[in-house]
Amino acid sequence: MNSGPPVPVLSLSALGKDYAAPVLDDVSLVLNAGEVLALTGENGAGKSTLSKIVCGLVQPTRGQMLLEGKAFQPHSRRDAERLGVRMVMQELGLVNTLSVAENLLLDRLPNQTGWIRRGKLHELAARQLAKIGMENIDPATPVARLGIGQQQMVEIARNLQDDTRVLVLDEPTAMLTPRETSHLFEQIELLKARGVAIVYVSHRLEELQRIADRVAVLRDGRLVDVRAMAGVRESELVQRMVGRAVHEHEGRDAALPGRCC
After folding, report:
1. Rounded CA gap, 72 and 86, in Å?
2. How does pLDDT run across 192-206, given as a tens digit for each residue?
3. Which of 170, 202, 204 is nearest to 57 (CA)?
């Protein structure tokens, strides 16, 4: 008996967000289990607004979302995280005065009669760091002592929970070394194999071509293209982003420009 196609992990229908004027309008998109969807566009195209709506940081003005076929209306980041929807933002959310382990498990510190079980805390943190290939970091190290790239990896590790269903990565490699980037991409492949759906926000075409299954292009708050990533040329992406043809040499300078909002 044919049960029909699988239900998308996340469905967005006619999403819009207004401030003084619309910044996002009529965005409909689906995200499937075990895929990486690249989200790209120029500065101000609406990528960060869309990402923050999905993760509960911004409330939409209109439209609806479904998480595995059920209504999804997170009113805060915590609401979204409780349902397995997490975001690694460009702005790090670590507490510099706490250790790596405390940052990784801040909302679920192991304790007994009110006292933190340090041994268990460090054991769990080491397990979390191993997911991102960072076994060399001592969980007891204060976050303030880490380099910015290592702090970014800790932020990513903090969001790689076992119940993660959707993971939004906003320019995740901006502060990473090539080695750290390779560790991240390996982890993304493992997450895909587990069925986690990933939204990867980036302007780096070589990264998108390496890990993305599909690419969605936003322009002026509207979704203008969704296509398979395989075979997409840089000039095609840039044309969809800016709304006009771009010469090849111009595309190399203009393609995937700067960070966006």
Report:
1. 14
2. 988 999 999 988 888
3. 170
For the purposes of burial, counting CB atoms within 10 Å of the CB of 166, is it exposed (0-12), middle (13-18) or buried (19 or more)?
A: buried
One-letter-per-residue 3-state SS of the chain: CCCCCCCCCEEEEEEEEECCCEEEEEEEEEECCCCEEEEEECCCCCHHHHHHHHCCCCCCCEEEEEECCEECCCCCHHHHHHCCEEEECCCCCCCCCCEHHHHHCCCCCCEECCEECHHHHHHHHHHHHHCCCCCCCCCCCEHHHCCHHHHHHHHHHHCCCCCCCEEEEECCCCCCCHHHHHHHHHHHHHHHHCCCEEEEECCCHHHHHHHCCEEEEEECCEEEEEEECCCCCHHHHHHHHHCCCCCHHHHHHHCCCCCCC
Q: Rounded to two decimals, what is the model's pTM?
A: 0.83
Decide if 125 contacts 84 (C-beta within 8 A): no
In tens, the pLDDT along 74-124 reads: 999 999 999 999 998 877 888 888 999 988 887 766 665 566 677 788 888
* Cα separation, 256 vs 61, whole angstroms: 28
Domains and CATH numbers, the chain: 1-84+163-261 (3.40.50.300), 97-162 (no CATH)
Q: For residues 26 and 61, what is the distance between their CA atoms, to the nearest angstrom?
A: 11
